[in-house]
Structures are given as structure tokens and as C-alpha cells.
């Protein structure tokens, strides 16, 4: 009896610590209460037993009152603290309490590929009447541990995300649904193989066409780390969870332009509010689908009611996803309404047929395609939009007829002709490799007729002259000490040398106009969707002014240019992230423009090129609206690549974070110019997270090449030539000129 | 304001430019590097600056600005054919006069392939071969077959090919191929080499002219659309690394019998050279190099857009209105925008002239340039002999290792061929160059090589 009371007291003590940690010592004198409780706890066996019971009841009542009051006054930053608290439930608690049995894959405990990621084969059961049905599911998620060091607070290392991908594939093979649980402050920002950014991109790319139902549950959704396992058919979120583009501390450090040290607490709280990171906010923004209610101040590891509810929600969500591939909308709604938290009225088989898998993937694409579209500003009247839709439809039909109907017969004939030609050439002249011969001849001819090789001298007026070149002065190459480079005359450097030191190959940064003017055939660049711009979806203080300033300074409406152009006569669709506009960060408008451009490339069967002048990541002022551009755009990439196109990414200057970890990093062909800095997180973030200083060449292209991120290092002086050869030799069979 | 010339070169050409400037009444500034402190051009210069390197544009322009120079003479070698430097000189905020052709001409004529293409389009004979870069081996093989047919039509026997990297030069990125089967492997090898070394994969294929004479035409153009020539030179006698050793003017000799009409060939190559010069609005001194075969066929090889080392032999045999010529003076005058003041009809050619390049090199061991200290440099003065050198006669001179090892140019003038040969032999027998290498061995020179080769002048030679 006494032992039970002691146990209860211990629970109360834990609750007091919890409230104190979250609300602070001064909240309703919780600090004092905690001191008293602690004293009580220490002197437990000296106090007369008859008093203990009433004392405990008193304390319980007080704590409950405080708890309710705390819940009422809960602010976003306190929610962040809840999700980070060691007493909060973790994935292992869920596996114990929600699932009937489970087995960890890829190691458990410390003996693990990555202890921050848990993959488990689990059984989840439902009762329908007297029958009990078991479903197999794959559970993949982050494990924060209750303060265990080796879990790194749920920060998945690159190989942790790779492990997640491996078991996703396994679930796909076995045809069982996947439940993802996101408990991460962000991915662990190290670039060791397979590379933080690269692996997240790979995961997203694969998840966008995973042919099994996927459900995610977000408790702590830290930007890219969350997305690595967050592209799912249905996204649930804990009521006291947060889902954000950056931690409030990180945002505050950026806002205060801090180089090091801690940002002031008021600013952090302000940021937590401004980032709109709570479940309610995210539901409003449309980045999640449903909120799972939690007890006051959040569920902890012993809140069994919560786990029961979670189990019900997970089953129901999976049912919903499965039913969406099957039945009519009306029936589906009715059927789902019959499933109540108390009991299930019928059983849904979670296995999908081939047709259903297709619908599933289609539904997923539609869902992400629509996400955040409401936040785009696009001046458009009703008639104009109708006309545009009509034109789009007409265009896609025209392309369809041109390439699918006419081109295929043409292709068959061409193939026949090629066979014939190569055979006759075999008779005429013994050549070792007839197919190669024909191919090379075609390539060779194209080179001669279509492109002007750099050896040729072009007249002066053909060149775009960078405004940087209009000064009579010299600059010193930053690598002069190492390679003994002579000082460079600015007009030569930014003119003929394309901003490259001829001695050591160091690339100086150039403005984005240089690329637009010098890479493509003269006069072939036509931009489109220029008018699309981001609003201020979060009503982030000061963001509207910053956007306005950027618009005025650059004359652009977003950081992403999308345009049609030609290289050596080959028509392409391209996008370019521009440094001048808010450091090339990606928000709603940039994502939408990217998707529209790549969709255009898909229907017109043209190659798609993404030039990265610089990208600083996802724009924090658009919060999760920006973050979901990662899965959105990656899905479009996957769709395009699978349709047999050619997607090439070229990095220059600084390319970091979200975009690299998604729609850029998932490209089959990625190249970087020589002086690019490429990676997931900047040196400062790495140092703060890992405590390890970053070597200066950590983000160099050489290292990016070594860890398999890029396929090659290019020189800016021959970018046009390289691109042209890439267009001729790479890519799928569905390009219009194949 | 008085014009002032920055002499951006060293050695004997710097001295010649100084003399020309003095004769024209121009001020000048010389530059030198640490290694050249002993050189005569430093001793003779009234105003001089020490710089880090003759190739350092920033240093040169800093000196020019410091001294308020108005023009810059690049001489030969170093930056003389660097169109970027020429462009920078005229395009900077305080532009200088570039004593040399326009930077566009340097660029376009310096690009051998482009020059060849233009020449071909103008109907000027070029060495049979591709005039566009080739990027793949099938094309290369087809091209080689085509060239072979063409060469056989032209009467070449035992044709071999030269496979060259477009961006190469000076013996780099060039390989001889004897038969068609080898084209592909050599092409692949050279393409990889060119890509690695020059960053440009372009390859051209030409036939190799087996036996030839190396002739060149000395052209002078002004900014007023005037063009004259100062005859031809014969530079067939070269070191194995295609470095000229003996040059003669004029290009053909009356005492030798040819299978063709030398007068006609000379006239034609001069006319072609002038046509090409006009096409590029060439406004300075320049040399157009030709290969002439024993059958009297001739092909344009390349254009040197600068003053040549051997310019003085042309000057020696040319007389403008009966007065001797100094091509450096002419070059400086046209650079400042002056008219020529004479036409081709005023230029007469008399006599015959020869130039020896005296070099410290081991002709028996692969023509390795030698370094060391010259203790004695002696020759007898004659009215028909001009010595151009930066080596002081009065004290020991250490040959710097970083520059080309030319010690002196001996220019000899004769009334006719036999007279010239006699004088040349006498000079070679009398000249004394003594010294020691750093190892203590006696310093070898190419005097014996020159003596041997004297019998080969005006002959068609096989390489």
C-alpha cells in the first residue's frame, strides 16, 4: 500500500519536473511546489502513513490545476520544449503500446546501423466484433530515447536514412503499409557517405512512387530530417508536436544575424510564434492532414489512453488511404465514419492490386501537387485562367500527337534504316563496331552543323559582357599563394575567362545574367510564369517588406527563373535559382514554378536543366509551406525522370540545404562547377550540432564527387559545350530529338 | 606631350628598339629582371626599371603608368603575340599605343586553324588537310582518306600525315602517322593528350610535306591602308626542334637552278601574303611563312604578328629611295599613325644577306641549351658585318637559364652569293666564343654546326 503511494508520489514528482521544465520555475509557483514535493519524497518514510494519502491527494489536485492552467497558457515555444522533453513518448513507447508485437531490423539498442532511426516489422491488430485481425506493417521512425546520448536526440545520420530507405523497399516488396514516426530535430548534418543531403533526396525520390500505403505521424518535425521519411499519403500530427523549417533558436540566430552564441530568449519565443510550427497552424496551412489529440501538456510515456487513440488513428488512416484507391468517394466517407475510436465495424485488407497501386501513386501526386498552391500570388482573371487551361490542354494534345503518334512510326522506320545502313557498311568496309560508327557519325555531324565550337572566333558583339568586366583594375586570385597565379585584369577575367583564373582554374562568382546570356543560343531564352510570386502565408513579421525589397532590387518576382531556351539548336526547358533574390532560397512560388516548368518539359518531351546560381535552402519565412516544396518538387522530378526525360542539375557558388536534399539532389545527372560549395548544412550548423570543427574543404566539389553526390566537375569556360554533349548523350528515350 | 615608349623585352631586341627610338627622337624606358642585370641592354638604357618577369603584364603596365609612357613595344617572344595583353594595353582607362598589329589581328592570325580557314576561303594555298577541328575518330579516318586522295592527285608520293592538336604548338601535341591504320589510335591518344593539356579536344590532320624550303615574306602595313613588302627570306636551316639557325634574304637565289620559275613563285607568295594582310587590316610589320616544295608548290604555314629576330637581313637588302631601311623604325612610325611616305615602287632590292644565330648549345647531344659564363667573345669588325648582341665584350657574362639561349646575331651582307659565302666562312672562322659551364667544362657553341650547314643554304631539305 505504502509502496503504491510512493510510486504515485514519484509520478507526481515527475509531472512537477515536467511542468517546471516546460513552463519555467515561476509558473504558478511550480518551483516551490516541486521543492516541497522533493522534500516530501525524501522524507517519505518519516511522515506518518495516515497523512501521506491526504497529502498526496492535495498535491495531485494542485498539480492538476496547474496542469490545466499550463495547458491554457501554452505557447508555441513551450510546445517545442514538450516535444524535446525526455519524458515525452518516443517511438519505442509507441512500438510497445500501439503495436501488438514488433521486431527491430537493422539492429537494436546501441548495436545498430544508426540508433537514431528504428525500423521494425510490427503487427497491429483490430477487433471487429469478436474477431481479431492482424495487419503486418513496417514501422520506420526516429528514436529520441529518453535522454540516451547515443540516440543523438533522433538526428538521423546519412546511413540512418539509408537504412530507412532499405526497409521501405523491403515493405514495398512484401506489399505491406509503412507507418512513419517523425521525432527529429533535423538530420545529423554530416556529409560522410552517403551524404546527408544526398540520402534525403534519394529517400524522397523513392518515396514518391512507393507502391504501398504510407502514413506518417509527426511529433517533432525538423525540416529536411523530417521530410526524409515524411513524404506519405496521409500526414498525421500530434497535437503537441511541432513541424517547422528550422528550430526557433536557429531562426532567431539568423534573424539576429548572430555569428555564434545564443540568441535572446524573447527572440526565440517570437520566432516560435512566427514560424507557425504548431499542429493547428500546420493544419490550417494544409501541410498536414489531421491532428491526433493529446492530454494536457502533451502525452508522456505512460499515457496509455493516448496510445490507444493513436492505434485507432493509425489504422483508420491506413484504411482511408487504402479505400481511396478502391471505392467511390461517397461510400468511402460512409465507411470511414463507421469506424469509431471504440470499435471497428469492419476489416479492410491493406493489400493492393496493381491497378490500386497506380491509383495510390496518382493520389499521392495529386495531394502534393495541390499542397500550398493556395498561397501563390498570381494575377489572373477568370477568363484568362480558362484560356490558359485550354491552351495547356491543346498544347499537351499537340505534343502527344506529334511525339506519340507520329514519332513512333518515324522511329520504327529510322531503326530499320539504321540496321540496313549499318549492315551495308559492314559489307563495304570492315569496321569493328558498326553501331558505334553510325552513332558517332550522327553525333559528329550534329557537332559540326549545330554548335559553334569554342575554337571558332566569334565577333565581339556576340558576347554578353558582364558589368563586372567594365573596370580597369586587377584582382588577385585567392589561390595565388598556392599556385603562383598572376594578378588578373578584370575585363579579361570577367570577359574571355568566364570568371575563371586561367592559371589555377579558380572560379570567381558571376551574376546570373551571364549564364542566361552565354549558355544558350542567341535570342532563344524565353521566360515564363514570371508573374508568380510568394505572398506572406505565415504573416511573418517583416517578410513582406523583405520580399518587396528583393523584388525591387532584382526586378524578379521569385528566386527561381523558369525559361525555354535552345542549346546548339536543341530546345530545352530550364530553371535557375538566382542568388540575388533572397540568396536563392526556395518558397512556395519557387516550388510551384519549378513544378510547372518540369511538367512543361514532360509534356513537350524536352530535356530539363536546373542551374543553381546559389541556393541558401528553404526560405524560413514561409515555414513548413517552404519545407513541403521538397517532397512536392521531388515528386515532379520523379514523374519526369520516369517518363524518359533528361534532368541535369548544375551547381555553382553555394548550394546548401533543402533544395539540394530534394529536387536538386535527386537528379540522375548532377554536375558542379569547380569552386562550388555543396552540402547539406553550413559549417556553423555542423559545428554547433556535432561539436566538431569543419575542415575548410569539407564542402568542396572534390569531396562532393568522392561521396558520389555529383557525376563530374565542370569548368565554367566549357559549360555550354559540356551541356550540349550531355544533351546528346544522356537521358531517356522519350526526348523529342531521339 | 612627348611620346615615350616602354620597351617590354630584353637582350638585343631591346637594344635595337632603343636605337630606333633614339633615331626617331622618342624617349624610352627599359625594364629588366634580376637575371639580366649584367646584360648590355640594361647598361645602355638611360632609364630602366627592375621588374619580376618580362611576362608580368601588371608590372609592365605599372612601370608604364609610373613613367607616363604613351606606347609599348613588346619586341619578339614574351608578350608580343599575346592578344590579351595587346587588348589590355589599348582598352585600359589610360590606353597606350601598342607597337604591333591590332589585337584582333594578333588573335585571328595567331589562331592557326582560323587563319588557315580564312586563307583557304581567300583562295590561298594551305597545307592539304582539315580546316575544321575533328572531334571523333571516324570522321578523322574519313578525313585522312580524303586527304590521301587529294595528296596523290597533287603528285605526292609516300604520303604521311601529321595529326595535330588545334591548341598545340611549338612541337607539342603533334605526331606523324605513316599509314591510315594508325590514324585512329594516334587520334585517340592525341585527343586525350590535348584535352588534358590544352582543355580543347580539337584535332586537325594535315599531310606532311617531306621536302621543302621555308620561305617567309616580310610585310609592312600602316593604319592608312598602305601595304608594302620587303621581299622574302629563306629560313630552311633549322635545329631539329624547328628553331631557325641560318636565315638568308632574298628567299630564292639567282645562282641556284630550280625546277620551277622562282621569280613567279616569289611574286605569287608575296601577292597572297599581301592579300591576307589586307583581309585582316594588318597595320604593322609581320611575317608570312610558307613552305615551298621542289616542284614549285607552295603552302601558307603561319603568320608571325610581330617583328622577327631575322628582320634585319630583309632590311639590309632593301633600299627605300636608295636609303637603307630600319624595320623597327618603320614599325614604330606606323604604330604612331604615320603614313609610310613611300610605295612599293620606291623599294629596291640589292645584294644578299645572311644571319647566323650564335647559341651556346650542345649540337652533338640533342641541341641542349647550355648555361655558363662567357669569358671571351671576340670577332673582327668589317663594314659588311653587323653583330647584334647583349653580351658585353669587356667582362665575363653569365648566361641566364630562364630565357632562350641566343647569344648573338651575326648579319652579313654580300654583293652576290659567292661573295656572301666567302664572308660568312671568314666570319665563322674568326669569331671566338669561349667560356665555361658551371661544371667547369668548356662551353660548347653551335659555330661548328653553322659551318657544316653553310653548304646547305638554298637547298631543299627533308625533315
Q: What features would you describe in this structure?
A:
- By secondary structure, chain A is of the alpha/beta class.
- Chain A folds into five domains: 2-73; 83-305, Alpha-Beta Complex (2-enoyl-CoA Hydratase, Chain A, domain 1); 382-450, no CATH class; 469-509, no CATH class; 510-729, Alpha-Beta Complex (2-enoyl-CoA Hydratase, Chain A, domain 1).
- Chain A has 27 helices and 22 strands.
- In chain A, helix 9 crosses helix 10 and helix 21 packs parallel to helix 23 (629-642).
- The relative contact order of chain A is 0.09.
- With 463 residues, chain B is α+β, with helices and mostly antiparallel strands.
- Chain B has three domains: 4-99, Rossmann fold; 128-207, 2-Layer Sandwich (Dna Ligase, domain 1), CATH 3.30.1490; 211-462, D-amino Acid Aminotransferase, Chain A, domain 1 (2-Layer Sandwich), CATH 3.30.470.
- Chain B has 13 helices and 25 strands.
- Chain B has helices spanning 11-24, 40-44, 57-66, 83-91, 103-110, 112-121, 137-153, 183-198, 262-279, 311-317, 327-335, 417-430, 447-453; strands at residues 4-7, 27-32, 48-50, 71-73, 97-98, 161-169, 172-177, 203-207, 211-221, 227-238, 244-249, 285-292, 298-304, 318-320, 323-324, 347-349, 352-359, 361-362, 368-369, 372-378, 385-389, 397-398, 406-414, 432-437, 461-462.
- In chain B, the strands form six sheets. In chain B, strands 9, 10, 11, 12, 13, 17, 21, 23 and 25 form a nine-stranded antiparallel sheet that branches. A five-stranded parallel sheet of chain B has the order 3-2-1-4-5, with helices on both faces.
- In chain B, strand 9 (211-221) and strand 10 (227-238) form a beta hairpin.
- The model of chain B has no long low-confidence stretch (mean pLDDT 91).
- The chains are: A alpha/beta (738), B alpha+beta (463).
- The interface between A and B is medium-sized, with 23 and 27 residues.
